[in-house]
Amino acid sequence: MTGTMMKGALAIALLGLAACGNQSADESASPLGVAAQVARDALAERRAASQPQAPARTPEQMAAEALRVNPAPLILAGLEAAGRTQVMAMTGQNGAMRTYMTPNEQALILRNGMLLGTRGLGNDMSVTEPATEALIRNQRSGTAQRVIRYYAGDGLERPMTFNCTVGAGPNPGVMVENCEGLGLSFQNSFMVQGGQIPVSRQWAGPGLGYITIQTLRP
Amino acid sequence: MRHSRLFRQLLATTLPVALLVASGSQTALAEPMIGWGMNSYGLPGGIDTPTAEMLPDGTLGATVGYSDYSRRNTLVFQALPRLTAALRYSRIDNYQIDERDYLWDRSFDIRFQALDEDPDGWRPAVAVGLQDFMGTGVYSAEYLVASKTITPTLRVSAGVGWGRLGGEFRPPSDVGQGGKPNYKDWFTGPASPFASITWQATDKLRLVAEYSEDPYALEESATGEEAPDSKINLGLNYRIGDNYELGAYTIGGKKFGAQFTVALNAHQSPFPSGLEKAPAPVRPRPAPSADPEGWSGVWANDPTAHPALQTSLGDALAKEGQVLESMAISANRAEVRINNTRYLQQAEAIGRSARLMTRALPPSVETFVITSVEEGVPTSSVTLRRSDVERLENTEVSQIANAAALTDADPRPGNLVMTPGLYPRFQWGLRPYLTTSIFDADDPFRYEVGARLSGSYELVPGLVLSGAVQQRAFGTIKQEGPADLTPEEYLAQGTDMNDFGVPRVRSDTRMYSNSDGPVVPELTLAWYAKPTDTVYTRVTAGLLERAYGGVSAEALWKPVNSPLALGAEINRVRKRDFEDAFSFRDYEVTTGHVSAYYEFGGGFTGQLDIGRYLAGDDGATVTLTREFANGWRVGAYATKTNMSEESFEEGSFDKGITISIPFSWATGQPSRQEAGSTLRSLSRDGGSRLEVNGRLYDTVRDSHSGKLYQGWGKFWR
User: Fold this and answer.
1) Every domain of chain A and the residues it spans
2) CATH fold label, B32-265
3) Nearest residue of B to residue A121 by CA position?
4) B432 CB near a chain A CB, below 8 Å?
5) Better-scored residue on pLDDT, B134 or A168
6) In chain A, which residues have their Cβ closer than 8 Å to the Cβ of B708?
7) Helices (H), A87-187
8) In this predicted model, which residue has the larger pLDDT, B104 or B551?
9) In the predicted model, what is the mean pLDDT of residues B668-692?
């Protein structure tokens, strides 16, 4: 009995020292180290969950603060599936393509409001080729294809091709894009103003679901 | 020309989309019939009978089963969309075979689906299979089976079987000389029909009824267990989530069994893109009018420019887990030599380095050369035009692939400047370790947990002193002699030879599992070099592995764009003492191989080694491996040497399976680490190779055409 308990205590001590040394964490992963990390994360989550919650900041409060402290172009992005809304700041611009990042370096890549890619979310979209873009920006109805390339679980970049129909939405100024293919369907909504897309709700793939994007500072 | 392999690779990425995105929905593509319910042999099927069903391609599953007749533990792999392979380890109690009163027996199965089901017409899926086709043949059977989906929830299968499925009792061959294909028995003897019907009651629950002629004659005659009362068996399978399955069944109504299955699929990762942080985006150059000095290239004449650029780029690369080993820069060309310590895919490391170069280097630098370095040795160079990197960011990944040139790395270019302060480089780490031992006849699962202190001291690039000390804390692995001797009895024998005069090179491996003192698993000085553009060399001396010390020398010819590589290795080693870290036993041998490696494409690689093994026996090893772009590797090998079958003891030739799964696939965190294991069918003395760290082929390949292009999809990740 004592022996078993001793072993248990020792095991925890061993997991506790999971990584120590000057080898970078990149080189030092071991199955036990990973297990210890997962255990620590789980414990931290439980602790966080059991703590009394500070009153959640509303997106309006986050946006106001970000506009005050950050001079860069900003967007407010909401991951519907994760129930998370974050302010993202532009960290780079290549032509019309802009990369926006959160403080913990997750990124969305937009072209004048059209979602082209995601990075660091675990189910990332590599790049999207929306042939419907011109229809949406010019607020015209029509059909075209949308190709979403994503990072597949087997390590390859794989395309998914959807057939999409673009038309005016129920609210003025809103274009709706209905897409179908591969047994999936989704609907993107874009508020278009002078060719720009200040507000949108766009589907980022089967793993990520819908992302709502609002321009705070163009 | 140089793109032909790449194009094939990228083409492959566009084919089976439908399968991946919506695995539930059937499409018009010709796909094999898929089933999920495991039979008692751990393959898709009824209870004791097979069906023509396959598992989804790349599935790796393990089933642990227990019944009144036996325990069956099966590892199954869907090696190709239409080819299933299985390794089984089963126990039959009360089977008097040697001094033990039970039999632990290994068996191998394969099943091939020859015909696809026609979902609209009458044609069923048809498969042919061999069960327990080499070795003792306890479960030996062959079959031809057809399966047809009648309604979306109802599937029927019928076939004809030989051996067990044919109702025949094939006496097991002598355990001592098992391990060879029993091809003389295949599809011979009486044949009988079998059939099963499965009803998908709900998404998770499957009910099965089958007709099987298996007489369980071996169990009846050898163990006294009653034969089944009837030829009708009933069962159910219950699926829990995507990865787990429970099964319960009755054989004939009076005998019962239950089983549990875990299945993983190489194509389905919890975090397909990984959770690593977003890369720094490309920074396009300003217009020439905005930075005339930067565009003119006159900065290159400033002697402080190079060190400043190397420091700032080195710091940025370090945050991405890339060690900037050295750098060359001129007004219009920059080469960085990087050692990737973080990303499984070298393409991801190269893609991130290229983007950081756009952020750090003056605008006149148009040519980027990114050279990968492993063990201090340059393995390949990727040359990119900076304007292509700027232009093709956020486009389909094949575009940058077509704009990039992959070449052999120059071993000694003149203008490289080493990053100051990198060498000598000392690294150390203290962390827990876990060792497991499975498939042992007496105790199928053993483990040991302890702490391991490891360190490496790299004096100059390519010259590394490294070692480890480990201390066991607890576990069930213990010191044992070979052939059921106690350690004391074995030591008292005073010889390293077995009864046939064969040196015990591996069969006494358990003698190295001491329970108390610290252990030095390895302590070596290794020197890696690259004498020409395409030839790599390694010399390692010291305590090479737990059981052997000595000198190992290797050379490898591997042009960067060639699917073929040739290598040679020679080792002079001496067997280490079981306890004392720095003393040796009497056995000494020269062992070595010439090797050919070939990448067949589609992720398949083959390896042929011919030479002398540790026990002084001569022969060859053939290895076939399937590698996935995400780092999963499943392979099988077989070794045949001139050692006589008697001397080989159990099994006539060595064979086994290697499995390796990268941490990044399971956790989403970027890492080059893998969890792997070799399942040898038996741990014996014939056909054993020295285990030495840093063999060249796997060291250099990550940045060569086969693996680099396979993982090229991560360039912009």
Assistant:
1) 59-217
2) Porin (2.40.160)
3) B275
4) yes
5) A168
6) none
7) 133-137
8) B551
9) 82
Residue pLDDT, tens place only, B269-298: 888 899 999 999 999 999 999 999 999 999
The pLDDT confidence band at residue B175, using thresholds 50, 70 and 90, is low
For residue A10, the model assigns a pLDDT of 39
* Closest Cβ–Cβ partner in B265, B397, B431 for A30: B431
Closest partner CB to B428 (pick from A23, A92, A97): A23
Query: Which CATH class, in words, describes the domain spanning B292-422?
Result: alpha beta
The packing angle between helices A2-16 and A31-50, to 10°, is 90
Q: In what side-by-side order are the strands of the sheet with A125-130?
A: A114-119, A107-111, A97-101, A84-94, A74-79, A210-217, A196-203, A184-193, A174-181, A157-168, A142-151, A125-130
Query: Do B32-265 and B425-460+462-708 agree at the fold level?
Result: yes
- Tell me the per-residue pLDDT of B13-27, one tens digit each, with 9 for 90 and over: 333 333 333 333 333
Candidates A109, A127, A206; nearest CB to B396: A127
Q: Please say if the pLDDT value at position A27 is more than 50.
A: no
* Residue pairs between chains A and B whose CB atoms are closer than 8 Å: 219
Higher pLDDT among residues A4 and B168, named by residue = B168
Pairwise CB contact (< 8 Å): A182 & B17: yes
CA dist list (Å): B355 to A99, B300, B538, B717: 13, 21, 33, 11
Find the mean pLDDT for residues B92-112. 80
Question: Contact, A144 vs A126, CB < 8 A?
Answer: no
The token duo for B481 is: 């002699």
What tokens does B169 get? 């009792």
Q: Is the pTM of this model over 0.80?
A: yes
Probe site for chain B from A157, A158, A184 (most B CB atoms < 10 A): A157
Looking at the domain covering A59-217, what would its CATH class be?
A: mainly beta
Per the CB < 8 Å rule, is B428 touching A156?
A: no
Over the range B324-355, which residues count as b (16 or more CB within 10 Å of their CB) and which as e? bbbbbbebebbbbbbbbbbbbbbbbbbbbbbb
CA distances A87 to A55, A61, A210, B398, Å, are 18, 10, 16, 32
Gyration radius (Cα) of chain B, Å = 29
CA–CA distance from B122 to each of B33, B34, B148, B437 (Å)?
14, 17, 8, 49
0.90 surpassed by complex ipTM:
no
Task: Write the CB contacts of B127 (distance below 8 Å, at least 6 apart in sequence).
Answer: B50, B51, B52, B53, B54, B111, B112, B113, B114, B144, B145, B146, B147
- Chain mean pLDDT for chain B: 89
Distance in Å from the first CA to the final CA of chain B: 27
Q: Look over chain A and give the mean of its residue pLDDT values, rounded to a whole number.
A: 81
Query: Which 5-44 residues of chain B touch chain A by CB within 8 A?
Result: 12-14, 17-18, 20-22, 24-25
From A109, A158, A160, residue closest to B394, measured CB to CB: A109
Contact between A176 and A40 under an 8 Å Cβ cutoff? The reply is no
Backbone angles phi, psi at A39, to 5 degrees: -65, -45
Within B393-538, residue ranges assigned H as helices are 397-403, 487-493
Q: Which of these ranges, B273-287, B396-410, B485-499, B545-559, has the smallest mean pLDDT?
A: B485-499
Answer whether residue B243 shows pLDDT above 60: yes
For testing contact with chain B, the best of A38, A98, A109, A154 (most B CBs within 10 A): A154
What does the domain layout of chain B look like in residue ranges?
32-265, 292-422, 425-460+462-708
Whole-angstrom Cα Rg for chain A: 22
Q: How far is CA B181 from the centre of its chain?
A: 24
C-beta of residue A92 within 8 angstroms of C-beta of residue B283: yes
**Whole-number pLDDT of residue B440:** 62
CA distance B555 to B595: 10
CATH architecture of B425-460+462-708: Beta Barrel (2.40)
Q: How far apart are the first and last CA of chain A?
A: 67
Name the minimum distance, in Å, from the CA of B59 to any CA of chain A: 12
* Chain B stretch 64-123, residues whose beta carbon is closer than 8 A to a beta carbon of chain A: none
